[in-house]
Amino acid sequence: MILVRADRAIVDGAQRPAAVLVDGETITAVLDRDVVVDGAQEVVLAADEVLLPGLVDTHVHVNEPGRTEWEGFATATRAAAAGGVTTIIDMPLNSLPPTIDVPSLEIKRRAADGQCHVDVGFWGGAVPGNEDRMRSLHDAGVFGVKCFLIDSGVPEFPPLLDPRPALAEIARFGGLMIAHAENGALVTDAKGPRYADFVASRPTAEEDSAIALLLAAARETGARVHVVHLSSAAALPMLAAARAEGVAVSVETCPHYLTLTAEEVPDGDTRFKCCPPVRGAGNQDALWQGLADGTIDMVVSDHSPCTPELKRLDPADPLCGDFGEAWGGIASLQLGLPVIWTAARRRGHSLVEVVRWMAQAPADLVGLRRKGRIAAGHDADLTVLAPEQTFTVGALHHRNPLTPYSGRELHGVVRSTWLRGREVREEPRGALLAREDEV
Questions:
Q1: Would you say 48 and 379 are in contact if contact means Cβ atoms under 8 Å apart?
Q2: How far apart are CA 207 and CA 253, in angstroms?
Q3: Which one of 166, 191, 249, 267 is separated from 379 by 20 to 30 angstroms, measured CA to CA?
Q4: Regarding beta strands 409-419 and 382-392, do their DSSP bridges make them parallel or antiparallel, or are they unpaired?
């Protein structure tokens, strides 16, 4: 047994002193800070450290197999652990093959097996014509299926321009659809280095109209839906109204939308490109308000890296990238916790809230009842954070560590991460997770 003593721990929605008793892989009790437990090996946190549950990131593009030069299970999960994340759920694209049926899911699992430093689960994919495979994917343990309402950027994962047939099928077995909600009919072509042109090419209306389509389809079918990477704060009122009327909808946003602004993006610096785009400062303020009032449920990374070549950056002139040609995606898996904590503390939010957004709510979304909390019966997934210590973003464990956060000073140093009762080190101990049926 191990007894972890902390002057500050996030337990039961509060920060307080605690001693966490771990037996094997499981938390068996959360006790008073100074309790004596005979025979237990003690780990005592420093006075400047806080004990958090391991974070759960339900939006990660690992890309292996097929595009492992972009990212892979070994590098992604090592980065996750370094950032205090103990569970990730892998997206069904941009791997080859995409995870759109059970055979492709098994290929993905074989690729991940033995490489993972944290626990890993998988999303399935919803594409035109695979409605008859969704139930088998669900039964095989995926946590839900993802669709795009716009061109995904890769030809093997086409969009669902009408999500109703897939949602009707999902409603039959109580599954979950997560949706990239943008309306391609309202997106215009943008080329060149000017970031303002790129943002103008994807106005909030294109995101809002796609979310409206998704909500209408959810009302019609009764299916459970989740909006990924919300960037448009203009959609918040309709999302709140839909939830109030009983539509089963949840919402996530990402660190880049909460911490980066269009006004600060240098022209040509395509490390900042993502879809939907990082918008203006006023929009960002409204997203934080949506997070504070509960309209937005959670914060996850949407870690979507690629090779430097696909970012269209010129090594001789890094600020002449083409926002129209560059791959859209921001690498941030290792940095999500300090990025959000740095911004949250400045806005008056607490670590308790950060844990709710980045551990509890994502675990609840996918039904991982043993993850996301420091509580008896839960996996002993723990993060030791020094919240007041600062660092400058430099070397990262991502395979391609191109990130808009390079060189930034952030608050919150992850000093250690524990996966199921043992500190994460060189040995890959991560398990491959499957959805847990309700009991």
A1: no
A2: 13
A3: 249
A4: antiparallel
Per-residue pLDDT of the chain (439 residues; tens, 9 = 90+): 999 999 999 999 999 999 999 999 999 999 999 999 999 999 999 999 999 999 999 999 999 999 999 999 999 999 999 999 999 999 999 999 999 999 999 999 999 999 999 999 999 999 999 999 999 999 999 999 999 999 999 999 999 999 999 999 999 999 999 999 999 999 999 989 999 999 999 999 999 999 999 999 999 999 999 999 999 999 999 999 999 999 999 999 999 999 999 999 999 999 999 999 999 999 999 999 999 999 999 999 999 999 999 998 766 665 678 999 999 999 999 999 999 999 999 999 999 999 999 999 999 999 999 999 999 999 999 999 999 999 999 999 999 989 999 999 999 999 999 999 999 999 999 999 999 864 2
Task: List the one residue out of 420, 411, 384 whose CA is nearest residue 9.
Answer: 384
Supply 82's token pair: 């370094």
Q: Residue 46 and residue 384: Cα distance in Å, rounded? A: 10
Are 275 and 247 a contacting pair, CB within 8 Å? Answer: no
Q: Which amino acid is at 396?
A: L
* Segment (H or E) for 9: strand 2-11
Strands (DSSP E) found in 14-166: 14-23, 26-31, 41-44, 50-53, 55-60, 85-90, 119-122, 124-125, 145-148
The tokens describing 127, both together, are 């594409």
CB atoms within 10 A of CB 39: 6
Structure token pair of residue 423: 């500190």
Token duo for residue 147: 């669709």
Residues 209 and 160 sit within 8 Å (Cβ to Cβ): no
Which two three-digit tokens encode residue 246? Answer: 């009983």
Place of tokens 């009327």: 245
Structure tokens at 28: 């068996």
